[in-house]
Design goal:
Blueprint: E1 2-10, H1 14-29, H2 34-54, E2 62-70, E3 73-80, H3 101-108, E4 111-117, E5 120-128, E6 131-132, E7 138-139
Antiparallel strand pairs: 1-2, 2-3, 3-5, 4-5, 6-7
């Protein structure tokens, strides 16, 4: 089974909360297990925050957040109008106030990367959505019990 969603949001910090809530609600409705939802929501928060901090909006003045879910993975993506630098995971010092976002994404995602399509830059990440047990078999997802927000 596969499903996807795309939302265009204002190029504003308030869009992070909106994206988190929409992604969480959508994945809960689809029966994705809670740990995967939490990871996907954190990853989309980091990608969107980085885009708002370092990149330009899309030509429409907005930013695009999308996700695609299969039985095994959630792929989240944030598309913006590009930046002067290429997104990459930093290695901040202990006293640094920032620079950890893509490091968090790198830790939580099974893979991530950057696509360029003309003036549009998309940073994407894939989070495992299947609850695997030690023997490699996939178990049935437990429904998420807490509210999104």
């Amino acid at each position: 089974m596969s499903a996807s969603s795309v939302v265009l949001l204002p190029y504003a910090p308030s869009s992070v909360a909106v994206a988190r809530q929409r992604l969480c609600s959508d994945l809960q409705e689809r029966g994705v297990y809670e740990t995967a939802i939490e990871d996907a929501v954190l990853v989309v928060s980091e990608l969107l925050s980085n885009a708002l901090r370092h990149a330009h909006p899309l030509p429409s003045g907005q930013i695009r957040v999308s996700w695609r879910w299969t039985d095994e993975h959630v792929e989240v993506a944030v598309s913006d109008g590009g930046a002067a630098t290429e997104p990459r995971a930093g290695r901040p010092t202990l006293s640094s106030l920032g620079g950890r976002g893509l490091g968090i994404v790198e830790y939580l995602a099974s893979t991530w990367g950057v696509r360029h399509e003309g003036d549009i830059t998309t940073v994407w990440a894939v989070v495992t959505a299947a609850d695997t047990v030690g023997n490699g078999h996939v178990s049935t997802p437990e429904p998420a019990l807490r509210e999104c927000g």
